[in-house]
Amino acid sequence: MLDTEGDKQFLANYYSKALTCYQQAFEIRSKEQSNFKQSITASLYNLATTHEARKEYNKAKMLYVQALNILTHKNQSKYNEFLGYITAIQFATYTNHTEKQLQSLHTAFKQLQTPHNIRVAAIEHRLALLHQKQSKNQQADTSFKKTLSLTREHLEGNHPYHAKVLFDYAKFLEATDKKDLAYQLIKQANLILKKYPKKSTLTLYKK
Predict the structure, then answer these.
(1) Are 50 and 20 within 8 A, CB to CB?
(2) 128-163 pLDDT per residue, tens
(3) Hey, what domains does the chain have and what are their CATH numbers?
(4) What whole-number distance in Å separates Cα of residue 49 and Cα of residue 170?
(5) Which of 4, 21, 44, 52 could connect to 67 by a Cys-Cys bridge, CB 3.0–4.6 Å?
């Protein structure tokens, strides 16, 4: 009931009321013993998504990290789903980074973690947009393809952040006169976001 009411308030853009409902649901679930992981991560998802709607990205990220600590790697698909949400937030925080800063981050990830880590996608994605702005179309295309390769690998091509990358790549393709392919990508992205009604309203994932 609380989640349903929270969803209703969220979709009506009453985020404070939604947050109250989701917080109450979280407190109740925190005391439950059965299906703890599934129910508590659902509450963390609702709370984080509401903070995203309010553009309180640090709060949202902390809640997603809390969910990851509960999930561990035993449920890899769900674990990667939450990692994808964190990646989308990281992409947003890289908005004002220069190419040099982004390349430094990329190098750091290669040294400290696998270069195929999903979080590298946020860096490649931002590089793609930067190259597009600089009219470096070949480099932009390469970075978009690397980003999509990572989101397909880790997010199974079925995640709001994957949809966001598809939207951005489609814009690039339209600008380079590849409108048929762009249309196909937009169609794919819209189909994905239909499965995530709350996420589809967020600035993080819009076209």
Answers:
(1) no
(2) 999 999 999 999 999 999 999 999 999 999 999 999
(3) 2-71 (1.25.40), 93-205 (1.25.40.10)
(4) 25
(5) 44
